[in-house]
Amino acid sequence: MEITLDQPARARLITGEEELPVPATLHYCSSDPLAVHVAFPPEVTLAGEDVVWTFARALLAAGLDGPVGEGDVHIWPCGRSRTVLEFHSPYGLALLQFDTAALRRFLVRTYAIVTPGAEDLGPAVERCLNELTGQP
């Protein structure tokens, strides 16, 4: 049985001049147990459509305690109460601050669904192989 978790979160987009409030949704699904998703609604994206960033749940957990990340997603603590998520795309980068307590609460809730280390990767591997080979 697939279990999903959605948790609304408030982020602050850091620009050169100011911090702008941005709504986001943290998402986790037991069928993709190693990943977490951060979704932004169309009204706050450059393309005017939903944008979802997907990255490792372990990356989020590690980023709450120290700087981590390579490639498109970097995460680091910013003081005691905030965590920065940095997203890189071909269109530029976005720096967003989240309340660390909200991110920790989300992770604890995901651990109640699938304990770290107990992820069953079989369905995820099968789904990826099917996508690569064009199988339904």
Percent of residues in beta strands: 35-45%
Number of helices, where a helix is a run of at least 4 consecutive DSSP H or I residues: 3
Encode the helix/strand succession as letters.
EEEEHEEEHH
Count of folded domains? 1
The tally of beta strands, per DSSP, is: 7
- What CATH architecture label applies? Roll
Give start-end ranges of low-pLDDT stretches: none
Q: Which percent range fits the helix content?
A: 10-25%
CATH class: Mainly Beta
Major beta sheet summary: 7 strands, antiparallel
Task: Outline the secondary-structure elements.
Blueprint: E1 4-14, E2 19-29, E3 35-40, E4 51-56, H1 57-63, E5 73-78, E6 82-89, E7 92-99, H2 100-113, H3 122-133
Antiparallel strand pairs: 1-2, 1-7, 2-3, 3-4, 5-6, 6-7
Short description:
This protein has 136 residues and is α+β, with helices and mostly antiparallel strands. The chain has 3 helices and 7 strands. The chain has a 7-stranded antiparallel sheet with strand order 4-3-2-1-7-6-5, with helices on both faces.
Q: What do these coordinates show?
A:
The protein is α+β, with helices and mostly antiparallel strands. It has one domain: Sporulation-specific cell division protein SsgB (Transcriptional Co-activator pc4, Chain A), CATH 2.30.31.20. Helices cover 24% and strands 41% of the residues. The chain is built from three helices and seven strands; from the N terminus they run ββββαβββαα. The protein has helices spanning 57-63, 100-113, 122-133, and strands at residues 4-14, 19-29, 35-40, 51-56, 73-78, 82-89, 92-99. Strands 4-3-2-1-7-6-5 form a seven-stranded antiparallel β-sheet, with helices on both faces. The radius of gyration is 16 Å and the shape is globular.
